[in-house]
Design goal:
The chain has eight helices and five strands, in the order βαβααβαβαααβα. It is α/β, with parallel strands linked by helices and about 180 residues long. The protein has one domain: Rossmann fold.
């Protein structure tokens, strides 16, 4: 029986990469961080990519990578925060993945981004707004899209990554439509 891939979705700095690595180890699966893979393949950081070619180019590459990943099985995938912007990506996530939405408050996201020295290169601005305002605006736009594709929602507030990974593993095993374990 085919093992469905597990996709972690959510806004930047909600723990997708960190939790994804732990979850993959816990489940004995391979891990793919989509942003890292795209950057590795392109030979440049996200900020340079967006500056040179725009967000549209990055989003198209992201969609292409999702199409490749959907053909594989038994993966844990940390998606980029904007993967849900494309309706075809949302359809793919609903149909081919067990999708987990990692959530955090606007204040927590801002604090995490502010304390990460790599954020300017790995997470360039999405608008001309100040960071705190940008987070609120983008969350209000994306939350309904995350909701459309999520099989489960995990609040990451105040939880260590190991606890979040254990929670995902336990919930996904109980999810009646998921037969990947």
């Amino acid at each position: 029986m085919k093992q469905r891939n597990i996709a972690l979705i959510g806004f930047r700095a909600t723990g997708k990469s960190t939790v994804g690595e732990i979850l993959a180890l816990k489940l004995g699966r391979s891990f793919i961080d989509m942003d890292r893979r795209l950057v590795q393949d392109a030979g440049r950081d996200v900020a340079s990519w967006v500056e040179q070619h725009g967000w549209g180019s990055f989003r198209r590459a992201e969609s292409g990578l999702l199409e490749v990943i959907r053909q594989r099985e038994g993966l844990v995938v940390a998606t980029g925060g904007g993967i849900v912007l494309d309706p075809l990506n949302r359809q793919t996530l609903r149909e081919d993945f067990f999708t987990v939405w990692l959530k955090a408050t606007q204040q927590t996201i801002y604090a995490r981004l502010s304390s990460d020295p790599d954020s300017p290169l790995t997470r360039p601005a999405l608008s001309c707004l100040p960071p705190g305002e940008e987070i609120g605006k983008i969350l209000s736009e994306r939350d309904p899209l995350y909701s459309q594709v999520a099989n489960i929602v995990i609040d990451t507030e105040g939880k260590p990554p190991m606890q979040i990974a254990e929670e995902i593993a336990a919930l996904s095993r109980r999810f009646t439509g998921f037969t990947g374990f």
